[in-house]
């Protein structure tokens, strides 16, 4: 029997089907295009056939074992980063917050590179816990700064970017000093290249758990947008709710960095976009929209990186940076004006 929260989530989804369905349709098209586009010379029709009918050929193996996992990984990473960004903005009541602008991605990256330097040959699954630790450490610093009230909205974002730059410099130092980390250079740009089903299996449980929690507890998490006194007057334990939101940000962002590197700006851009769509409003609806909007942005960015540099590829993190940097500057200027 469905719980009241499950009934509420279903009701919220039914109230705003149009933008969700429209983005879901675009996402399906983008995923098919991602699977069918590549430098191998495989025709579009042959690649599409590989999705529908398996014949055991090398072409179909390429589709199912190389291209499809890449598209699926982009979907999962995009969902993680978008929902994490929404929760970070809600938790800190800061429209400039995201896993990148607050240095959370960089914290996870430092922890992963340091772990690989100490334990060479560690697989993707072994980097998840270090990623969580690094993301949690930086997230705690930024959260305490936010709670202190001593830093403005723009100042908090600048503090996060400064911390990110320091951590990035530390990562580069580790890369120079340790030969075992040299193969992480491409990963640090943020990429879903080289994706396989094992990477999908690493991130999938965290995506399901984190995104489901954001939907189920969205009514409680939305109280974080209010001040502490108002939240308490509504019967919410704001400390517990804030702790849950912080945990979800760490799980979602940390697992994304572990499998794809520090891809930036998805968590910043997507929440702002979905807030302007019909049906946006409370956090549950916004989280539902982010679950589709984040994957759509990342799959399209990955596809664009393959098209503009064909037959070579641009890491998807570079493409999102080119899109996100002017967006961040525009948001910062508007916030400073306010």
Automatic annotation (TrEMBL):
One of its GO terms (molecular function) is transmembrane transporter activity. It is found in: Cell membrane. Its main location: membrane. InterPro entries: ABC_BtuC-like (IPR037294), ABC_transptr_permease_BtuC (IPR000522). The keyword Magnesium does not apply. Pfam families: FecCD (PF01032). GO terms for biological process: siderophore-iron import into cell. Keywords: Cell membrane, Membrane, Transmembrane, Transmembrane helix, Transport. It is a multi-pass membrane protein. It comes from the Bacteria. CDD domains: TM_ABC_iron-siderophores_like. The chain crosses the membrane at residues 20-42, 71-90, 102-122, 129-150, 156-179, 200-221, 241-274, 314-333. The keyword Membrane applies. GO terms for cellular component: plasma membrane. Belongs to the binding-protein-dependent transport system permease family. FecCD subfamily. This is Fe(3+)-citrate import system permease protein YfmD.
């Amino acid at each position: 029997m469905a719980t009241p929260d499950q009934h509420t989530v279903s009701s919220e989804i039914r109230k705003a089907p149009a933008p969700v369905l429209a983005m879901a349709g675009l996402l399906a098209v983008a995923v098919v295009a991602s699977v069918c586009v590549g430098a191998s010379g495989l025709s579009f029709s042959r690649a599409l056939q590989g999705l529908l009918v398996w014949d055991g050929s090398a072409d179909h193996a390429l589709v199912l074992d190389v291209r499809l996992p890449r598209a699926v990984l982009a979907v999962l990473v995009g969902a993680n980063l978008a929902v994490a960004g929404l929760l970070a903005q809600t938790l800190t009541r800061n429209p400039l917050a995201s896993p990148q602008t607050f240095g959370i991605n960089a914290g996870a990256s430092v922890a992963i590179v340091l772990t690989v330097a100490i334990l060479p040959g560690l697989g993707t699954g072994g980097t998840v816990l270090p990623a969580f630790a690094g993301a949690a450490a930086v997230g705690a610093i930024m959260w305490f700064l936010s709670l202190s009230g001593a830093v403005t909205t723009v100042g908090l974002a600048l503090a996060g970017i400064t911390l990110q730059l320091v951590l990035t410099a530390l990562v580069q130092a580790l890369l120079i000093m340790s030969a075992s980390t040299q193969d992480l250079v491409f990963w640090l740009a943020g990429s879903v290249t080289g994706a396989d089903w094992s990477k999908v299996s690493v991130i999938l449980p965290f995506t399901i758990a984190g995104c489901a929690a954001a939907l189920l507890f969205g009514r409680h998490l939305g109280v974080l947008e209010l001040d502490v006194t108002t939240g308490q007057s509504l019967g919410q334990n704001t400390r517990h709710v804030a702790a849950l939101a912080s945990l979800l940000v760490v799980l979602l962002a940390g697992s994304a960095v572990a499998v794809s590197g520090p891809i930036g700006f998805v968590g910043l851009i997507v929440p702002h976009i979905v807030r302007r769509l019909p049906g946006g409003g409370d956090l549950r609806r916004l989280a539902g929209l982010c679950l589709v909007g984040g994957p759509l942005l990342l799959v399209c960015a990955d596809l664009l990186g393959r098209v503009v540099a064909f037959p070579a590829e641009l890491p998807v993190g570079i493409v999102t940076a080119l899109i996100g940097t002017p967006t961040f500057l525009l948001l910062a200027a508007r916030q400073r004006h306010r």
